[in-house]
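Record type: ASSEMBLY
Status: queued
Input:
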Amino acid sequence: MRIEFVRSGGPAAFPGMVMDATVDFAANPGRVSEKGGYTRDLASQEAQDVQKLIDPTLFFRINNKDLAKKRESGPRDLYQYDIAVHMDDGRTHSITVSDMMGETLEGISPGLGKFLDWAKQECQRITNYKVGQR
Amino acid sequence: MCKVAHRHSFSSHSIFCILPPDILSNIVKNGTPEQRDAAMRALGLDTSLRNQRLTFSLLGERSAGLDVSGATPVVQRTIFDAGNLQVLPGKAVRNEGAPPTADVAVNEAYEGLGNTFDLYLQVYHRNSIDNAGLPLNASVHFDQKYNNAFWNGQQMVFGDGDGVIFNRFTIATDVIGHELTHGVTAAEANLVYQGQSGALNESISDVFGSLVKQFKLKQTAAQADWLIGAGLLAAGIHGVALRSMKAPGTAYNDPVLGKDPQPADMQHFVNTMQDNGGVHTNSGIPNRAFFLVASALGGNAWERAGQIWYDTVTDHRLSKRASFAAFATRTSLNAATRYGSASVERKAVLDAWRQVGVIKATASAAVS
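Status: finished
Output:
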């Protein structure tokens, strides 16, 4: 399984702060890489924990139009997260949420809200990396 | 109390006379306007300001502005400290009329809410976000190093910023005005937050956010900096603000943030799926149109230019999926309605939309 997440938007939608990251579990036990050059190898336990947060059966049933309605009725100026799950058998599904939709996601697919929290923390690590590269 | 209810044609609701106060309070919160009126009178609420505030607290925010007194609207602010947790609202730390605290974020939030309330009331005669006296609540210190501020439909939420990209979000009063204006837009045009209507939604927040700041500083259009979020970028970032309404695309150019991508005209409109279809990017086009109108008219931007934009945001004929062109047409029509079809105000509006390429030069001449 491979998970991609792209963070955009926020109060200013800075182009340099768009995070385009991939969590690849084929790289044993798992690796996060971001297009700006950031990489982080996950410890075995973290890789297992992150993978468990995504239930593919439930994830692939999520209707993105329903999420769009939730997003539309929510606050403005939030960060947008596009999350795509790619299965080893070739199946792919993606959803778009805002950074304040963790509870909604948790209600749809237990663990998915926690994945969003994890992705947000990873984005902060990527931010620190980008700032450190300046 | 019951007599009052009966005088107001609620004789069929004489049940209000026998209901206990807690049930009456629930009716005040959840009943129809007629039921609320009768229940409030049954509760013996008089028309003093003190009791108007009590009534507001009973009503909650949804219908908090029910005017039982006819008194001049007054701002009703409460600032909470979220304690760097994600739980809202947190602990109340400053109520309306209370002196400043030792916490600068609390005081900035308090002032920013007041500045926004003042602009809308004093210039556009709008009684708070919902035009019905909604109390303005805000939580500061939300989450840890949270890089954002937003209106959640009920209250303002401010993060402290990470100190790397952003300073505390209360630092810029125009950003507070921007976020609260999202509440105004939601209550009026309710522009869909996607594509061009989303960029208009963003632009309207920038326009009135900037006007909140200009009104507070009593600056003319020529004196204003037309920046959004000046002071919000952390030390070391190469930039002056989040956006420039005067010169979109020039607010920052930084190795980490990248270069400000805002277009100043339709020729450079950005098509993207990110950020709800580029709502923070393409807002540069209507932002500049407003700046051009305000500059052409001169004087205080909140007066004629701001009035035309306010008339348009509150124009129920404006579609929630309005394009830039549809919004431009509405501003032109509203300028004509308020100032005359041959007025300098309408000409300034048409010229501005033509300059940013939303209205073609030929179309502009035809409309004129």
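Annotation: Chain A has a mean pLDDT of 96.
Annotation: The radius of gyration of chain A is 14 Å.
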